[in-house]
Predict the structure.
Amino acid sequence: MDRWLSLLLLSVLGSFFLFPPKMARAEEKVTIGTVEDVLLLPWKVKLPARIDTGAAKSSLDARELKVAEDRVEFKLPGKYGGLQLRLPIVGWRHVRTPEGLERRPVVELEICVGAKRFRTLVNLTDRSLVKYPLILGRNFLREGFVVDVRRRRTSIPNCPDAP
Amino acid sequence: MLLETKNSGGGTRFLLLMKRVSKQNRAQRKFVSLPVGLAFLLALVLLLLLWEKGRAGEKLTIGEVEDVVLMPWRVTLPARIDTGAATSSLDARDLNVKNNIAEFRLPKKYGNLQLHLPVVGWQKVRSADFRERRPVVEITFCMGPRLIRAQVTLNDRSTVSYPLIIGRNVLKENFVVDCVRSNCLSPSCQEVSSP
């Protein structure tokens, strides 16, 4: 009898270690803070990103924006290297601002957050008045992130090179 | 006693020991398994206690939009959960500040209630081309099971879809935001249901 009781206790205890009730849920989604460093790929430019659940779409600070047919040319802010980029336009986004309706080109970017790569759509606009060059909005956060505002810079971007 | 100290190595070794013990005589087995069983029971109780404690301080997961109830008036408002906003803000129509009291109405869609609240501060807002000063008041609202007292800035938000923006000043009270979801919690504070 005693042996069976001990075995039962052991199995109950073992199940706690094997299936911790809270860990199982936390694993599905990655918790990030309100600001995270990300890498712009393939150029490996590091940018701090504001994680913004109030923004429907992500946006990037693009300086000297020039649209040529289906492509857009712009520079990253000087603070982050001032890299000149040329990307195909995949769409346009209409944004209501205090000055009226604005049309912003949308491009697809590859970014590295933590150890994972993501392809995500961002709209381009001059954000020189705002603190962060990249805003990650809900279209990106739906890829499996939850936001904890008590934290910031929870991850270091470190993606393995593409094969 | 000797067996018990050996047992601290781990579960599998414990199982092997149990097998070996079962081959020994009954009296000796009783002597061994009683303290071992007791130790495990104690560990189990401790683990359960720790788990429960962890749950009490658990972070509440909320979606990108949540219904909150403004107290004590019990007005339900949909709120945009915004990690990009440092402070929260409320849609105030016909706003008027006299003698440090802010007078305003909630949007018609949410009952048009007239409110008078003391101004606790002013927030400078930098828009693209003009500067603005907005009054800050304190409100109490119920979000999920929690009654929250928080500062909100007042401004006319008639061009925006949500009458209340919940920013980081509220979200730092142990909430995490999951954008795949909305309306995760229904307001369930005692104060909402009691007369």
